[in-house]
Specification:
Length: 261
């Protein structure tokens, strides 16, 4: 009886969580479609700003949407295409290239975007930005994965995820040995972002054991600063991997507005 109750509770939680994500932008027009086999979405502001600005969300659609909602009120479009299962690999970068071209052609968006990456979303935003620096206003990364060896690998102090690790190695064409020398990760790719003078903001949990600060943001921050980049870090003390964002997103929103002028 207890196991049945627990299953029911978990099922209800999943339903509520999905409903919350789907209704996050209920006050705004949303187009949902498939792009090259991937789930894609675009949310339209009630009144677009003259610059046709937009923020590209890389992960967890509708989760902690306060920043996105604030930007919608400022006339930003919100866009998304699901590449979570590719862990920011080259296939994901190519698909993002194609999606970028599609968005500009069909929706007449600004040629530069704001990138928003939560957790594993950090992989694709940095890997894509490093190859498309001229297309990026700024980056907002939230508890971002900056090294696949940290997560999902769990090769250091972090928890890791065995299932995701196996999938990650597969889509990268790596194994437990070759991954150790693999360099195409945000910690290294961020140098190109820094050299291009793209401003970056990281929001992290000081007690995060899933994507630990020392294994991810701290290493990226060091290389970023050495390359002359502008990076800001907001550390939420005694907070783990969740919740993402800030209860009051004003510091994030102000950062984005400042760098899209």
């Amino acid at each position: 009886m207890k196991s049945i109750t627990l299953i029911n509770v978990l099922f209800l939680f999943l339903i509520i969580n999905v409903d919350a994500q789907e209704s996050a932008f209920g006050a705004f027009k949303t187009n949902e479609f498939t792009f090259k086999g991937k789930n894609a979405k675009i949310v339209f502001p009630n009144k677009a700003n003259e610059e046709r600005l937009w923020i590209w969300r890389a992960r967890f659609w509708g989760h902690e949407p306060q920043t996105d909602l604030a930007l919608l009120e400022k006339g930003f479009h919100i866009v998304y295409v699901d590449v979570a299962g590719l862990f920011g690999n080259n296939e994901a970068v190519i698909l993002w290239n194609d999606f970028y071209n599609y968005l500009l052609k069909v929706y007449d968006l600004n040629s530069k975007t704001v990138l928003e990456g939560m957790s594993r979303g950090g992989l694709i935003i940095y890997n894509w930005a490093s190859q498309n620096t001229e297309k990026v206003f700024c980056i907002y990364a939230d508890a971002p994965v900056c090294d696949i060896k940290s997560w999902p690998g769990g090769l250091y102090a972090g928890q890791g995820s065995e299932k995701d690790w196996n999938e990650c190695l597969k889509v990268y064409g790596l194994n437990e040995t070759t991954v150790l020398d693999y360099k195409n990760i945000p910690i290294n790719n961020a140098v190109k972002v820094a050299e291009a003078k793209i401003p970056v903001l990281h929001v992290i949990g000081g007690a995060d054991i899933v994507v630990p600060y020392k294994e991810n943001t701290a290493k990226l921050e060091k290389k970023f600063k050495e390359a002359g980049g502008n990076i800001q870090i907001i550390i939420k003390e005694d907070v783990g991997h969740h919740p993402h964002s800030l209860m009051n997103p004003k510091p994030i929103v102000d950062f984005i507005l400042e760098h899209t002028k």
